[in-house]
Structures are given as structure tokens and as C-alpha cells.
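Example 9 (inverse folding). The structure is encoded as follows.
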């Protein structure tokens, strides 16, 4: 098994414990998305756009003690690379 750090493919949150992982419709652990983004087999914010997700994370960044400018730069660089935001 790979030791690579799993990160949510929607918001980029590191998923380090079982409680961090979202759930599938059958209650099993979803390996791709965190509990904040994915619950019971569906996205918690199904209609959010990439730009809205970036804004949402920037707003949350203050609670993590991260400057908004730094959070925006990080989100704009990393979120477009995640599975949920890949253009189909």
C-alpha cells in the first residue's frame, strides 16, 4: 500500500484519520473525499463552483490562523488540480 498522504479531491484537506474521510451510500469510507465535502455518497455542496470553493476556503482560513492572501494563493494553485475540478 502506498504511504502517500491522502488529500480530499474536492477541498484539498489532508485526510489523516478515518474520521476525516467522507462516506459512501453504504456507509463505507470514501477514499477520495473528506467528511466536509462528501457524505452518504453525495457532495455536501453539490452545486458549488471551483471559484466558490476557493472563496469558501479563504473565509475558513482565518479560523486556521492562515492569512487570507496566503490561503487564496494556495487554493488557486492546488484546487484546479484536484479530481472534482478537472474539466470533463
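The amino acid assigned to each position is listed next.
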Amino acid at each position: 500500500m502506498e504511504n502517500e498522504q491522502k488529500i480530499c479531491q474536492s477541498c484539498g484537506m489532508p485526510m489523516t484519520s478515518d474520521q476525516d474521510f467522507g462516506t459512501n451510500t453504504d456507509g463505507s469510507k470514501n477514499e477520495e473525499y473528506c467528511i466536509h465535502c462528501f457524505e452518504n455518497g453525495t457532495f455536501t455542496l453539490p452545486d458549488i463552483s471551483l471559484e466558490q470553493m476557493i472563496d469558501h476556503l479563504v473565509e475558513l482560513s482565518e479560523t486556521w490562523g492562515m492569512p487570507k492572501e496566503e490561503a487564496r494563493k494556495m487554493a488557486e494553485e492546488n484546487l484546479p488540480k484536484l479530481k472534482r475540478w478537472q474539466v470533463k
